[in-house]
Design a protein that fits this description.
The structure holds two protein chains of two kinds. Chain A is mainly α. Chain A has two domains: about 20-320 and about 355-475, no CATH class; about 490-625, Rossmann fold. Helix content of chain A is about 60%, strand content about 5%. Chain A is built from 23 helices and five strands. Chain A has a five-stranded mixed β-sheet with strand order 2-1-3-5-4. In chain A, α2 packs across α17 (about 450-470), α10 packs antiparallel against α14 (about 390-400) and α13 packs across α16. Chain B is an alpha+beta fold. Chain B is built from five helices and nine strands; from the N terminus they run αααααβββββββββ. In chain B, α3 crosses α4. The longest helix of chain B has 25 residues, at about 25-50. In chain B, about 35% of the residues are buried. Classes of the chains: A mainly alpha, B alpha+beta. Chains A and B meet through α1, α3, α5, α6 and α8 of A and α2, α3, α4, α5 and β1 of B. Chain A: This is Glycosyltransferase RgtA/B/C/D-like domain-containing protein. Chain A: Keywords: Membrane, Transmembrane, Transmembrane helix. Chain B: Keywords: Membrane, Transmembrane, Transmembrane helix.
Chain lengths: ~625, ~260
């Protein structure tokens, strides 16, 4: 068994040059020369742009998906092949180019303005921070965003220092964070696997994670917090293998990153606490068993510091965090266990969508391939565990969280958490895969196949499959107006109605559907209600009789004076399924037209703004039971 | 010492210029990078020490990426500190705060790691610069491929609060028709009023000429009003004011008539 690409625990820290053993000394093939790689990337980007044009015009989804992947593979395959040569300098530039290529599809999706649900929330938060000069502004799209000012604060700082627009400033921050994530993986893998080639390969594998191309590149707090998360681990790993000033400085910088992470995103902080707790426990256990230090103190300080900062933040700044997060955990576990006995609960994985069958097939195949790689790694490592540092093993083991998380996709509440876990768990997968690839490359060549081509085929399958496992079609592709999507239901009409209402009435409280709400909050700064079982604001349009007296009294007391209706909700069912969130009584159905027509007859609603599709009603529930003099 | 002074001076100059009305291009490409990357470079030297000629290249990835990481951390730390001390998060606060942190890091790096060494081999940046230009051009080209989407629509709104009226008196309902994406039709729209479902003859209709709009993104607007006799019976009345022939272009009002 070959173990030369991984270190015995007693090896000196950060000895360079082990990459040489895995470096391909042949000159790069013509198609992986830098001019060819950059040229292919540029052409690939243009082809991706063409796929978005085709998507915006509608038409056969197979064509736009095919063109998209033609462009992406044209761009990504040559640079990946170049990285795989093991040349240290080429690997650095290659990872940078891969970072660009995994950022560009989302950037081209909506280059000039927010389009994703969370983007509206963070963009509005940044606008409000800039206009008021203070952090912690209330946010009615994602209320918890108020307590995590990392994204809005950074955006505000960049906007003030550069003079760019708020959106461009946010993109600059996100792009920087995106690149930092990949280079953190490079450093982490280089430190843990003691090979520069391993660093670049791990970055390539990490770039395949299902959240990398669309989810973590959206303008939201995850994308920034993940960068801090990765660097905490990278700097912690460096500190654990260093001594003197280097150890102190790396640890101090890691703790600063902890502060950045905690102030930016709750869920990333939670994953960080869990992972650092696991690493610290395993390292401490190894120390107890075999009396080898392996940086135990560093990991304990990092874990303790993270817990301290996170607890202090939640207790003194972000108190609603626990209330916000608890439904995702309790609810998803409940739904997942319920699915064992019922067939109709939960979501249908790979439900009917424009996604072509071949991409869905690769989506199903991808976890299998990753699973086989992990299984091979387990078999390779099982007899030499004691030769490996405990923190490396802990990080690799963390990658196995990916597999149960795939199951949580089946539960509606768990899907969000599962999607968010991939950016973290794939770090472990990246370490495992980089180890296996290097190990495989060191074996004697097999006569009847080219290993490079097999690896490239696996790369393509996992890339296509994982992107398919990420966000849905309307999030990935632009398109004609489609009611019931966060992205393609956005209209200039809703935007200008929001601005007009804000101009005439101020930042008033409004009842509206979940899609129009994004526009009203983002562009009008309006305060939109979040319907729930306890506050079923959807009764205004989703029931034939309108609101109950109790709900009317609650809305009046809470100051909800306006209702905004998009009449397209009566033309077709929502793409997502509901118009007012999970408590909507008409899930899967279009709102009956009569429900909307009734609003023009009731005494408590006055239509004060109207366009072809949108109507704004001023509500006066004091007139709930008032007789209409004219008998209308 | 001279090199450290040059770094410190560049930070001070960047702070001062950031407070002046300097063009966005200069701020984005020069002032902002100077402010945050000098801080980042100094922090990297604190962690890794100053690189010496002939030194190994094991930390090259860190030397390139740590400054960028710190460039992300410093502005975040500054805005959080501004919030803690109740200082407005605005240009002076952020620029001076970031500059102060950068100067602290420059000083600390000088004490701990000695004077900085300047990067060598500028010729090696030519290739990446060309790549950036090529890829930037490709991204711009790809973005330009999207067909421009212009939504043309009009918006009718009630220009004042919901009216109240004395029975039998004349009620005036002002309205505004705003055009988006394309100009409003030239001819004055027909304005109709229905009270309790019965069409009434307006006392007066004004539909001023189309003029420029103050609304964001609007092409033009037409302001007008319609006056009609309020019902004689006190109570709440259904009043519909239609502007033009489009079925959607109707304001549905609840007119409260008092005796």
């Amino acid at each position: 068994m070959t173990t030369s690409t991984h270190p015995p625990t007693q090896a000196p820290a950060d000895t360079p040059g082990t990459a040489a053993s895995t470096q391909d000394t042949r000159p790069p093939a013509r198609w992986t020369s830098w001019p060819a790689v950059v040229g292919a990337a540029a052409v690939g980007i243009l082809v991706v742009g063409l796929s978005y044009r085709l998507a915006a015009e509608g038409g056969n989804p197979n064509i736009r998906y095919g063109v998209f992947w033609l462009g992406m593979l044209l761009a990504a395959v040559p640079v990946t092949a170049r990285i795989a040569t093991g040349d240290r300098v080429a690997a650095g530039w290659g990872v940078a180019l891969l970072g660009v290529l995994t950022y560009v599809p989302k950037f081209l999706r909506n280059p000039g303005a927010p389009a994703y649900h969370d983007e509206y929330a963070h963009w509005r938060e940044a606008v409000d921070v800039l206009s008021t000069g203070t952090l912690f502004q209330p946010n009615s799209i994602i209320p918890i965003v108020q307590y995590y000012p990392g994204t809005s604060g950074l955006t505000a700082a960049v906007q003030r220092l550069t003079g760019l627009s708020v959106w461009s400033s946010g993109q600059l921050v996100l792009f920087t964070a995106h690149m930092l994530v990949l280079f953190a993986v490079v450093v982490l893998a280089r430190v843990h696997l003691r090979s520069a080639a391993a660093g670049a390969l791990a970055a390539v594998v990490y770039a395949l994670n299902p959240s990398e191309m669309y989810f973590d590149t959206q303008y939201a707090y995850e994308g920034i917090a993940v960068a801090f998360f990765m660097w905490i681990l990278a700097l912690g790993s460096i500190a654990a293998r260093s001594s003197g000033r280097r150890r102190t400085a790396a640890l101090a910088l890691a703790l600063l990153c902890v502060g950045g992470c905690v102030a930016t995103h709750h869920l990333t902080t939670l994953f960080l606490v869990l992972l650092l707790g696991g690493v610290a426990a395993i390292v401490a256990f190894r120390r107890w068993r075999s009396k080898t230090a392996e940086g135990t103190g560093v990991w304990l300080v990092l874990f303790g510091g993270t817990v301290l900062v996170a607890v202090a933040w939640v207790l003194f700044v972000a108190t609603p965090t626990l209330t916000y997060l608890s439904p995702y955990f309790g609810g998803s576990v409940e739904q997942l266990s319920g699915m064992a006995s019922q067939e109709d609960t939960g979501r249908v994985v790979l439900a009917p969508s424009p996604q072509p069958l071949w991409e869905r097939g690769l989506t199903a195949l991808s976890p299998v391939i990753v699973g086989l790689v992990c299984l091979a790694a387990l078999l390779a490592l099982r007899k030499v565990l004691k030769d490996w540092r405990a923190d490396t093993l802990a990080l690799m083991a963390f990658g196995l969280v990916y597999f149960p998380s795939v199951l949580f996709l089946l539960a509606p509440s768990g899907a969000e958490g599962a999607r968010r876990s991939w950016a973290f768990s794939y770090l472990g997968i990246a370490l495992i895969a980089a180890f296996m690839v290097l190990r495989w490359r060191e074996r004697r060549p097999v006569r009847w196949w080219g290993r490079g081509w097999v690896l490239m085929a696996l790369f393509v399958v996992v890339l296509v499959g994982n992107v398919g496992a990420g966000l849905n079609d309307p999030y990935r592709f632009p398109g004609p107006f489609r009611w019931g999507t966060d992205t393609n239901s956005a209209s200039a009409e809703a935007r200008t109605v929001g601005e007009e209402l804000s101009a005439r009435a101020g930042r008033v409280r409004v009842i509206t559907d979940r899609y129009t709400a994004l526009q009203l909050v983002a562009y009008g700064g309006l305060d939109v209600a979040a319907p729930s079982v306890g506050f079923p604001a959807w009764q205004l349009t989703q029931t034939p009789d309108g609101p109950t007296t109790q709900l009317a009294a609650e809305m009046r007391a809470a100051g909800y004076d306006y209702l905004v209706v998009d009449t397209r909700m009566a033309e077709e069912p929502s793409f997502i399924g509901d118009n007012y969130g999970p408590t909507d009584p008409l899930i899967g159905q279009a709102t009956p037209k009569e429900n909307l027509a009734r609003l023009d007859r009731v005494p408590w609603a006055t239509r004060v703004i109207t366009t072809e599709h949108l109507r704004v009603y001023h509500l006066d529930f004091f007139l709930m039971n008032a007789p209409m003099g004219g008998g209308s | 010492m001279n090199r450290t002074l040059i770094l410190a001076s560049s930070v001070v100059a960047a702070v001062v210029l950031s407070l002046l009305p300097v063009p966005v291009v200069l701020r984005t490409l020069v002032l902002f990078p100077v402010l945050v990357l000098v801080a980042g470079w100094s922090a990297a030297r604190l962690v890794l020490g100053t690189r010496t000629p002939g030194n190994d290249t094991a930390d090259d990835d860190l030397r390139f990426t740590l400054p960028v990481l710190v460039a992300l951390l410093v502005p975040l730390a500054v805005v959080l500190l501004l919030a803690v001390f109740g200082i407005p998060v605005d240009t002076p606060g952020i620029a001076i705060g970031t500059g102060a942190v950068a100067l602290l890091l420059v000083g600390a790096a000088h004490v701990a790691a000695g004077p900085p060494t300047w990067p060598t081999g500028p010729r090696r940046t030519v290739g990446p610069l060309v790549a950036v230009l090529v890829l930037g051009g490709a991204v711009a080209g790809a973005a330009a491929m999207r067909p421009p989407v212009v939504e043309s629509y009009a918006q009718l709104s009630l220009s004042t609060a919901v009216p109240r009226a004395v029975a039998g008196s004349t009620v005036t309902v002002p309205w505004t028709l705003t055009g988006y994406g394309s100009p409003l039709p030239g001819g004055a729209p027909e304005v109709r009023v229905a009270v309790a479902g019965q069409t009434v003859t307006p006392v007066e209709v004004t539909g001023g000429a189309v003029g420029p709009s103050t609304a964001a993104g609007a092409v033009d607007e037409r302001r007008g009003s319609v006056s009609f006799a309020a019902p004689t019976a006190p109570g709440l009345h259904d009043v519909r004011v239609s502007v033009g022939r489009d079925p959607w272009a109707t304001l549905v009002l609840r007119l409260e008539v008092i005796s």
